[in-house]
Design brief:
Mean pLDDT: 83
Structural class: mainly alpha
Shape: rod-shaped
Radius of gyration: 41 Å
Oligomer: single chain
Distance between the termini: 118 Å
Helix content: over 70%
Number of helices: 3
Number of strands: 0
Length: 145
């Protein structure tokens, strides 16, 4: 019973960590965060007396955001890799179906070609056998007259 509760706590903590890491990554990776950091970085230009505090806070933010962004990037890449693997499997299944359809179509076309050849041969054979019979009938009528 204790193991189940611990695994639920771990999964809850893991979900919280995932949510925090991805949200921090998305927020810090936005253009608005860039603008905020530019303004924050230019603050000592306008208020030189706060330069020490600004340097402290910028170092602090770097120390906090760097691991969070790294974890968020890993999580986002993992999700992208899972989607890519799923897409690959789907495309592979579709490709296999297309190959099977192509094989069936190729087989059908070969059967049609064989049938057409047989019909042509049969038609030629009928024409060749019909022509001499007509020719002999004509020659018999002319010889009888």
């Amino acid at each position: 019973m204790t193991e189940v509760k611990e695994s639920k706590k771990e999964s809850l903590i893991s979900r919280i960590n995932t949510i925090l890491a991805t949200r921090i990554t998305m927020i810090v990776g936005s253009i608005w965060a860039f603008y905020a950091f530019v303004i924050f970085g230019l603050t000592p230009v306008f208020w030189p007396s706060y330069e020490t505090e600004i340097l402290y806070w910028s170092n602090f933010l770097q120390l906090i955001f760097l691991p969070a962004i790294t974890v968020g990037t890993v999580i986002l890449n993992r999700d992208s890799e899972a989607r890519a693997a799923e897409d690959h499997a789907t495309i592979r299944r579709e490709f296999d179906l297309l190959q099977e359809a192509h094989g069936m179509l190729d087989k059908s076309l070969k059967e049609i070609a064989v049938g057409v050849r047989e019909l042509l041969v049969q038609s030629r054979h009928e024409r060749n056998t019909a022509v001499p019979a007509q020719g002999s009938a004509v020659s018999k009528t002319t010889s009888e007259s």
